[in-house]
Amino acid sequence: MKRLYTLVAILLIILSVAFVNQKTESKPKHNMPVVGVLTLLHHPALDQIYDGFVKEMAKQGYHKGKNYKLEYQNAQGDQSNLEIMSKKLVNMSSDILVGITTPASQSLAHATSSIPIVLGAVTNPKKAGLVANNDHPNTNISGVSDQAPVEEQLKLVKKLMPKNAKVGIIYTSNDSSAVTEHDLFVKIAKKYHVNLKSYSIANSNDLNQVSQKMLNEVDAVIVPTDNTIAGAMQTLVKNADAVRKPIFPAVDTMVKQGGLATYGINQNYLGVLIARLVVDILKGKKKIATTPIQYVRHGIPILNLKKANQLGIKIPVDFLKESIKEGEVFE
């Protein structure tokens, strides 16, 4: 009988060890930090942010696959993909998450309230419902805003266009970033006495028809930070070129695609700032809940000189020199 008790005890120990090992195996163990990145879709501006992020992580000593794992997910513009991918990144036991664009950041926020989320390309995180306060997030989210230097942009439009020119602004009505900047443009236009008329779209399918209507009624077009229009920029450029009217976009990539000029935020630099914050959080130098949203306050001058020549628009010498010296010139 004593021998039987001994065998039973040994068997229980073996089963207990096997159970513990099974539990341990069921929960992923990482020997390096896991960073999950979710973006809404591919387009040049967003791709620049991601590229700047990866390169700055390397500069900070984080090399993907060597001392940290980088999991990149692209929703290809599909909201249902965002939800699935957010859950996947959370279930991978990511140590930190990065959301590029407002929809991607919102989807990550719905998926977790504990894993730190660093957002990028979100114009107004508070208005998007991501933080309680842009200066004091008080949640598991902080990051870098891509709010454009609206006043600089509007002053540039006024400088390059004839007096009393009619200016249209087109934006996506359900994009909180675009709406925020649209409202700023409307407010500042009154200050500078710019004749500004608003046009909105619900999705990219509306852009062709709405932009054609707008271009028949205005002399120039402003595009705020707007992922939908950025993803369909060639449609807008085609319609504007057909009636020889300039586009003043928010970012450098859209100027390169056929816009005229802007004071824009360098998208690559946004990625750099995101990476620096991620590293500070991974190293314990900053706490996400007490880190204010960062802003890039001054845009760089960006000019498409080829487009200016095509449209017969004379570029002031001071802006041309500034663009050559401090910004970008596409010829």
Assign the CATH topology of the largest domain. Answer: Rossmann fold
Low-confidence stretches: 17-28
- Biggest sheet overview: 5 strands, parallel
> What structural class do you assign from the helix and strand content?
alpha/beta
Count of extended strands: 12
Strand order of the largest sheet: 2-1-3-4-5
Using only C-alpha atoms, the radius of gyration works out to 25 Å
The first-level CATH class name of the largest domain = Alpha Beta
Give a brief description.
The protein is α/β, with parallel strands linked by helices and 331 residues long. The protein has helices at 2-26, 44-59, 79-91, 102-111, 150-160, 176-191, 207-215, 227-231, 233-242, 252-256, 267-282, 305-311, 317-326, and strands at 34-39, 69-74, 96-100, 117-120, 141-144, 166-172, 195-201, 220-222, 247-248, 261-264, 300-304, 328-330. The chain is 46% helix and 17% strand.
SSE map:
Blueprint: H1 2-26, E1 34-39, H2 44-59, E2 69-74, H3 79-91, E3 96-100, H4 102-111, E4 117-120, E5 141-144, H5 150-160, E6 166-172, H6 176-191, E7 195-201, H7 207-215, E8 220-222, H8 227-231, H9 233-242, E9 247-248, H10 252-256, E10 261-264, H11 267-282, E11 300-304, H12 305-311, H13 317-326, E12 328-330
Parallel strand pairs: 1-2, 1-3, 3-4, 4-5, 6-7, 6-8, 8-9, 11-12
Antiparallel strand pairs: 10-11
Helix pairs in contact: 2-11, 3-4, 7-9
